[in-house]
């Protein structure tokens, strides 16, 4: 008799606890409505609008001012020298070259941990020092990476800044020559630079054979601005076996979407094998041609390119920064936004479901109620 009475009392207590939680949630909900009125509802609607497939943001984010300052936890820039060959005679390997890349290693880098890798290409009239600087003279963008990774805004990753300059550091200043060099760059990239980087540092490549590099393609991205964007498109054209993610900004290759689709077909890949996150600025002189390329790709009716929208997933996403011009400030802003998203479940953004309230029923358990922060 006493046992049954104890069970009844316990059951009543559970119901009372559940009822209290439900009343508490209801009161908070009503209070928020009264305090915020239409504004409170608008704020919630705005939060819901942030939800995009793949955790992609609805708009580009400016680099926080405090990210430009030196961070307490700092990554390291290192010089990497590697052997390759002159670009236009590459197949004959008749003219060896010794080239240089700047490599960023995140704070706390350890050979016991695997890291994703971003290959970041400079634009015209420039070189491998353009974005991160040098070990002796780091740039402010290096501070951005340090701060963003320290705060969890960007996943710890290795960033490699190489150059498509060939026999002269001035090659990128010749527009016609730069176009040809970016088209050829994939030879050096796959055969020489990637093995040098990923054979030296700890990445997801089990080894640096072609098979080892291809097997780890999900952990590799290529990005660039202006002529670096052109190089990104050429990397997409030639290196889908080795890269999953491509982040071009303000530099187009062609306005023929069918030509871009044929590149995918020629390499034996499918729409689910890659993702393109493209960015530009509304006041950028390269925006018109760049946007035309994105739109022509999205218009291809064979399904090769599927544009991401609020209601559908895809493999092609394009954002513009209002007022963005064709300069280094916006270039690094696009890189920052791209890195926020890469290999990051929500791209540094809060999930739209983070603030969702848990609903309890009479079937809920005491443990579930006790685990709720509101309890």
Question: Which helices and strands, and how do they pair?
Answer:
Elements: H1 2-49, E1 76-85, E2 96-105, E3 116-121, H2 140-150, E4 157-161, H3 175-200, H4 210-215, E5 220-225, H5 227-238, E6 245-249, H6 257-266, E7 275-281, H7 287-298, E8 316-321, H8 328-341, H9 366-371
Parallel strand pairs: 3-4, 3-5, 5-6, 6-7, 7-8
Antiparallel strand pairs: 1-2, 2-4
Helix pairs in contact: 3-5, 6-7
**How many β-strand stretches?**
8
Q: How does the major sheet shape up?
A: 8 strands, mixed
Query: Helical segment tally?
Result: 9
- The SSE order reads HEEEHEHHEHEHEHEHH
Number of domains: 2
**DSSP strand (E) fraction?**
5-15%
**Helical/strand content category:** alpha/beta
Radius of gyration: 25 Å
| Helical fraction | 25-40%
Q: Which term fits the overall shape?
A: globular
Oligomer: single chain
CATH class of the largest domain: Alpha Beta
User: What CATH architecture of the largest domain would you give?
Assistant: 3-Layer(aba) Sandwich
Poorly predicted sequence stretches spanning 5 or more consecutive residues = 1-7, 12-49, 346-375
- The mean pLDDT is 85
Our measurement of the CA-to-CA distance between the termini, rounded to an integer number of angstroms, reads 32 Å
CATH superfamily of the largest domain: Alpha/Beta hydrolase fold, catalytic domain
The name of the CATH topology of the largest domain is: Rossmann fold
Strand order of the largest sheet: 1-2-4-3-5-6-7-8
């Amino acid at each position: 008799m006493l046992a049954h009475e104890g069970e009844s009392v316990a059951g009543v207590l559970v119901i009372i606890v559940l009822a209290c939680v439900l009343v508490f949630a209801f009161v908070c909900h009503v209070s928020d409505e009264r305090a915020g009125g239409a504004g409170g509802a608008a704020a919630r609607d705005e939060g819901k609008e942030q939800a995009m497939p793949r955790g992609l943001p609805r708009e580009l984010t400016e680099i926080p001012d405090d990210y430009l300052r030196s961070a307490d936890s700092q990554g390291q820039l290192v010089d990497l020298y590697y052997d390759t060959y002159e670009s236009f005679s590459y197949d004959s390997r008749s003219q060896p070259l010794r080239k240089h890349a700047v490599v960023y290693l995140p704070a706390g880098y350890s050979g016991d941990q695997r890291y994703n890798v971003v290959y970041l290409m400079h634009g015209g009239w420039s070189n491998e020092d353009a974005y991160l600087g040098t070990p002796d003279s780091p740039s402010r963008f290096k501070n951005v990476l340090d701060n963003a990774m320290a705060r969890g805004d960007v996943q710890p990753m290795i960033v490699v800044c190489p150059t498509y300059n060939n026999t002269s550091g001035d090659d990128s200043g010749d527009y016609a020559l730069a176009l040809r060099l970016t088209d050829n760059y994939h030879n050096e990239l796959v055969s020489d630079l990637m093995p040098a980087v990923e054979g030296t540092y700890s990445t997801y490549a089990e080894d640096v054979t072609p098979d080892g590099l291809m097997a780890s393609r999900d952990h590799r991205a290529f990005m660039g601005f202006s002529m670096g964007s052109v190089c990104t498109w050429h990397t997409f054209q030639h290196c889908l076996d080795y890269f999953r993610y491509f982040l071009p900004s303000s530099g187009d290759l062609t306005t023929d979407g069918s030509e871009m689709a044929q590149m995918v077909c020629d390499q034996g890949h499918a729409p689910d094998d890659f993702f393109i996150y493209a960015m530009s600025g509304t006041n950028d002189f390269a925006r018109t041609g760049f946007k035309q390329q994105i739109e022509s790709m999205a218009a291809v009716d064979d399904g090769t390119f599927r544009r991401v929208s609020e209601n559908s997933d895809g493999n092609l996403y394009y954002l513009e920064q209002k007022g963005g011009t064709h300069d280094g400030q916006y270039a690094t802003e696009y890189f920052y936004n791209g890195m926020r998203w890469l290999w990051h479940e929500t791209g540094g953004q809060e999930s739209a479901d983070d603030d969702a309230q848990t609903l309890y029923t009479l079937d809920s358990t005491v443990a579930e109620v006790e685990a709720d922060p509101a309890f």
